[in-house]
Amino acid sequence: MATKVVMEALSPTMEEGRLVKWNKNEGDQVKSGDVLAEVETDKAVMELVARGDGVLRKRLANEGDASPVGTLIAVIAGADENIDSIVASAGAASAPATAPAQPAQAAQGTEAGSAPSEAPAPPQQKAPTQAPSAPPRPTPPAPPRPPSAPPAPPRGNGASRPAPAGGGRQRSSPLARRLATEKGIHLGAIQGTGPGGRIVKRDIENAKAAGVAAGPSAAAERLATEGDFKDVPLTQIRKTIARRLAESNGPVPTFFLTAEFDATRAAELRTQLLEMGEEYKVSFNDIVIRAVALALAEHPEVNAHWLGDKIRHFNRIHVAMAVAVEDGLITPVLFDADRMTLWDISGKARDLAKRARERKLLPEEYTGSTFSVSNLGMFGIDQFTAIINPPEAGILAIGGVEEKPIVADGQLEVRQRMRVTMSCDHRVIDGATGAKFLQTVRRYIENPLSLII
Q: For residue range 182-202, what is the model confidence (pLDDT) as tens digits?
């Protein structure tokens, strides 16, 4: 019996997947559990396994194609089994979505939500930098000339040359070109009435009065013809980032709390630990995550999700840390972070960050967080605001640690300082609630021995 291979939801938030690589060719023997292909989800590259035994009879998606979850991408069946009806039904299902968009597909590559066609485009096909020229449009009739307009003088033997059609260059006077640019009129839509079909001032004025549709500006035409741009198809992770940010930045009523912590003792602690050996090495990010986890335990109202009709307060603390990857951002999760030692956090964070950059995280390793931390201090950023990752109620943005002159007890001192900004969902966290949470984080950062006791 034939087995339909569909694009599976390989992560909880996956809506479509891009086929990175086929591991089996048509005609190969396949057993249930064999890895058929590698698929790029919205967060990682995952394996798509066979759900039946037989021969891989037909591949309906090429490497590089993006397919919505549930789309048929291959058929496994017996060597002599008739699969024509299955292949035909797949083609019929995709035809309504692909037929009208056929001309645009060549320029757009793989679009989000496009179903695979029966004859997909070659893998990794790049979008052309110059749009294909449109078929010649029929030249519209010349607008009626006003009675006072003088007839065009004869040229040569008395016959005027017709205006060029299709791809020929339309002759026009400098004044006409300037007026056309100012009025937003495309010269290609006008038939000249001047000598030899030349477009003159009165043609532009008549065209404006007749409501000739405006064409692309001269700058736009120059960009289109000279290829001064490159269209980069969205990756699955970039599509997800765009969707999630739109979900957060618009609907979520966000306010921001900024504070500056004294990180001098934390810096001294890092130095002392490193002197004990490489195995004791910790980063400022590790210290912050540990401090945040312990502070969340004291402020459960911050360790919460907004669920529309209710607020969910969590008894367990799962801190996500933002990791920059090649084409976006991913947030692996440190589960039960409040129960981990500083060195547990350090080792686990390094491992998660490494595998995140290699796109090897499992879905359960980057979902399920209750609060997030984002650190750009290593890039020389003093302060920034981070966007909340719904349904979480907050995220803490960490700036760099730098030396600053500070007045303490009437004395001028140079201290290590670190600025943090907390983004809060006001539906869950009030100003005073967020401020008290930051006070607790400050206490741990400025007294780092409490993080290792």
A: 777 777 778 888 877 888 888
